[in-house]
Write a structure and sequence with these properties.
The complex is a heterodimer of chains A (about 240) and B (about 120).
Chain A: H1 2-9, H2 14-36, H3 43-56, H4 61-69, H5 71-97, H6 115-119, H7 121-137, H8 146-164, H9 171-195, H10 201-239
Chain B: H1 5-23, H2 27-46, H3 70-101, H4 106-118
Classes of the chains: A mainly alpha (about 240), B mainly alpha (about 120).
């Protein structure tokens, strides 16, 4: 009897109760979704379609929105990336300090990447850099922008460290670049908010290019820092850093 | 009846993520489930007023009926960056927790903590 009771008790396992809960949530969610019907006409889209190109001078309306109308949003988004980099670095120090369970596999075999890969990576870097710069510089007129271009550019640093073992951007240098570019983004953004109404067409274009480049550099160094702190928090014990 | 499949896929991804957060005790899988919830929300927002064959909101010669709505796209670029930041911090916190307690299971970590507090 006791055994049977235990078996019945297993029906209240978290997997089954979770499934029942998710089914209830699904009924509520899909019921509300099918009740709500289709989305109507967007007045905001109409206004942006009419005035966006003339006011922001950006052919890419998305870039026009997040670099002009919703600039505060972008500033806080860049701040959030900075805070996340600070958090990752802080917790990486914590994880090395709290290390109570040393790595069981003491013998870590290091395999050198092949000569062909190491020598043929330079043209690949040039191509990645060209593509990233193109995405950043034409971000306001085509698909792209600072965030996307920065994420492409960081591929150079990551693959250089991963395939060749070269650290192009040091952690200290990247931290300084991160801080300085965030301050510059704040200064340029605040300047635009204060005096942007009087800008001419050329002024708007220069502002868009400058802020896209700054965001690209900031995202590139931030993602590089996140990668580096993940690598070194695991490698610290073995590499003797 | 015409369904907007992008929105439905977004809702389904959201539900899968909710189930992963509730039913799995592995911390790594919880972080992954949070990322799936994030992707579900992004997919749902991108599907609002979505039409098959709509042009991207770029250029000045495209008529408005053939253009996708840029407002949810501009909102979701923020959500993508926030998702990346949250995932990075959560994974690094998990790394520290794993080195401290030596387990990826929530319940085992709770038990070890309780025993340590009794001492």
């Amino acid at each position: 009897m006791k055994y049977r009771k235990k078996k019945n008790y297993k029906l209240l396992d978290i997997k089954y109760t979770g499934l029942i809960f998710v089914i209830i949530v699904a009924f509520a969610l899909f019921g509300a979704y099918f009740q709500s019907g289709e989305a109507g006409q967007s007045l905001l889209f109409d206004e942006i379609y009419l005035r966006g190109l003339a006011e922001t001078t950006a052919k890419n309306l998305v870039a026009g929105i997040y670099l002009d109308y919703r600039l505060f949003d972008t500033l806080l988004e860049a701040l959030l990336l900075l805070v996340s980099v600070i958090g990752v670095m802080q917790f990486s120090h914590l994880s090395t300090a709290e290390k109570q369970f040393p790595n069981q596999n003491k013998k870590i075999t290091t395999i050198e990447s092949s000569h062909v890969v190491r020598e043929s990576l330079l043209p690949v870097y040039i191509l990645i850099a060209l593509f990233g710069l193109y995405i950043i510089l034409t971000g306001m007129d085509g698909p792209g922008g600072g965030f996307q271009g920065g994420a492409i550019l960081v591929a150079i640093f990551i693959s250089a460290h991963f395939a060749q073992g070269i650290t192009i951007l040091n952690v200290n240098v990247a931290t300084k670049i991160e801080k300085i570019t965030y301050m510059l983004i704040l200064i340029v953004g605040m300047f635009f908010i204060a005096y942007g109404a009087n800008f001419t067409y050329l002024g708007h274009r220069i502002y868009l290019i400058i802020i896209n480049i700054l965001i690209g550099i900031k995202v590139c160094s931030g993602l590089n820092l996140i990668y580096m702190s993940f690598m070194f928090s695991e490698m610290e014990e073995d590499s003797g850093l | 009846m015409d369904f907007n499949y992008v929105e439905i896929v977004g809702l389904l991804l959201f539900l899968i993520g909710i189930y992963g957060v509730i039913a799995r005790r592995n911390i790594m899988k919880t972080v992954l489930s949070l990322s799936i919830i994030d992707i579900g929300v992004i997919t749902f927002f991108l599907g609002i007023r979505n039409e098959v064959g709509a042009n991207p909101p770029i250029g000045d010669g495209v008529p408005q009926e053939l253009m996708a709505d840029p407002v949810p796209q501009a909102l979701m670029i923020t959500a993508i960056v926030i998702g990346v930041a949250v995932t990075a911090v959560a994974l690094m916190m998990f790394s520290g927790l794993y080195h401290r307690y030596g387990s990826t299971n929530w319940m085992k970590v709770f038990k070890i903590r309780r025993e340590e507090q009794k001492k």
